[in-house]
Write a structure and sequence with these properties.
Structural class: mainly beta
Shape: globular
Largest sheet: 5 strands, antiparallel
Low-confidence stretches: none
Radius of gyration: 20 Å
Number of helices: 3
């Protein structure tokens, strides 16, 4: 039986006139004790980070941005060198410290509201989603040669996010552009190292939860071989880069009998808490959607194919017990799809962004089965990155928070 979503943060009614959203799913949006929720909101006319005491509803603004949105990955029509990098905001949930980029300064702020500038983004580079290590000592800021996004969004962009009409990864390959894993000391702001990755557009980075020498990174929107070019590991201790998903027929738990192929598409990789496995999702070439798991020690893969009619794009994220939650795919057998204008921020995935449910998903990897427990309809229109529900568990694993725009504005809900 479905339950009703509960509004947590955002305008109460359409007259509020502002958007509020969770931080990106590669970090938590909640303090480690689940007492505080961190959100990005433009309620004062510009995007800023707010913290909400969940028990009282009291909210406090932590950042001080007055220049709109900084241009970066996903926010292609932002301002060059000015504004808040909405993609850059990440939370150290154990220490209640927010890291962010504003006006090309790499900053941090705690609950006291004192903002510290740690370092600066070099001229001629674009940034994306950042990540802080579990021990709170390291911050990774992915950067790419600015030429990758060198265009006028108003004249040469399309869709809601005004992404370029050209193939970004294609330009990276043709013009031999690079991305950089830039790792900073969170106390001093010193750049500890910068690893150049040629012919690569990096937008997602995540430290291994137990070994911060290892960073998982991606190739965004691969123009070829999407099934094997998406997920990579960099080991700083030995300065090596390793591909995670390779072609092969040795997949475990796969009742559909699908081989791993370069022609598949894969995305939204995420570490397990113990740093031993990586989950991801995607779809087989000319086949169904799937969710997968990779084990580092054994280099084994488990992949579970979804039913053919589970064809609505969604994200999978994980709780501390390795249970999943999802904002798409699921449907009841008698569901009649509500036709919804498809989102214009399409990547290489073949599925429409018209998923309707927030579901708890229990994986049975060895049996090749997923147990779907639909909780509520999120009712988001999926139009643009900020309206993607991107559901996340709280730390206790008993509540899921998500974004939704079912009217004019994005708001944050829980179930």
């Amino acid at each position: 039986m479905l339950v009703e979503r509960k509004l947590v943060s955002g305008c109460h009614g359409e007259d509020g006139g502002f958007d509020t959203q969770l931080l990106y799913f590669t970090c938590s949006s909640l303090s480690s004790d689940d007492k505080r929720l961190y959100v990005i909101s433009d309620r004062d006319g510009h995007p800023n980070v707010y913290v909400r005491e969940l028990a009282t509803g009291q909210e406090k603004r932590l950042t001080d941005n007055h220049h709109g949105i900084l241009k970066s990955y996903v926010y292609f029509d932002g301002h060059l060198g000015k504004g808040l990098g909405k993609a850059s905001v990440c939370l150290d949930s154990l220490r209640d410290i927010i890291y962010f980029i504003q006006d090309n300064l790499i900053c941090k702020v705690g609950l006291d509201g004192e903002i510290y500038a740690l370092n600066k983004v070099p001229d001629g580079r674009m940034t994306a989603f950042t990540h802080v290590s579990n021990d709170g000592k390291l911050l990774c800021v992915p950067m790419t040669d600015g030429r990758a996004l060198d265009y006028d969004p108003d004249k040469e962009g399309y869709g809601l996010d005004k992404r370029p009409v050209y193939d970004i990864d294609g330009r990276v390959q043709e013009e031999k552009l690079s991305s950089y894993l830039c790792v900073f000391d969170t106390m001093t702001g010193k750049l500890l190292y910068e690893k150049e990755v040629p012919l690569c557009w990096i937008t997602h980075v995540q430290f291994n939860p137990v070994n911060p020498h290892v960073i998982m990174f991606n190739h965004e929107w691969p123009s070829f071989d999407c099934g094997i070019r998406r997920i990579w590991l960099y080991d700083h201790a030995c300065d090596t880069i390793m591909r995670v998903r390779c072609e092969g027929s040795d997949t475990l738990g796969n009742t559909g009998g699908h081989d791993r192929s370069a022609s598949d598409w894969v995305c939204h990789e995420m570490w397990s808490d113990d740093g031993s496995t990586i989950i991801y999702h995607g779809g087989y070439a000319n086949g169904p959607a799937m969710v997968g798991k990779y084990e580092l020690a054994s280099r084994r893969y488990w992949e579970i194919a979804l039913p053919e009619d589970f064809n609505a794009y969604g994200h999978f994220t994980m709780d501390h017990q390795q249970n999943l939650c999802c904002d798409g795919y699921f449907k009841f057998p008698d569901d009649v799809k509500i036709f919804r204008e498809n989102s214009t921020d399409n990547g290489p995935d073949p599925h429409r962004k018209d998923g309707e449910y927030i579901s708890r998903v229990i994986p049975h990897w060895e049996e090749g089965m997923l147990e779907w427990i639909p909780l509520c309809k999120h009712r988001s229109d999926w139009l643009g990155q900020d309206a993607h529900p991107h559901p996340i568990y709280n730390h206790a694993g008993d509540t899921i928070f998500f974004n939704s725009r079912s009217g004019k504005y994005v708001k944050v809900y829980q179930v």
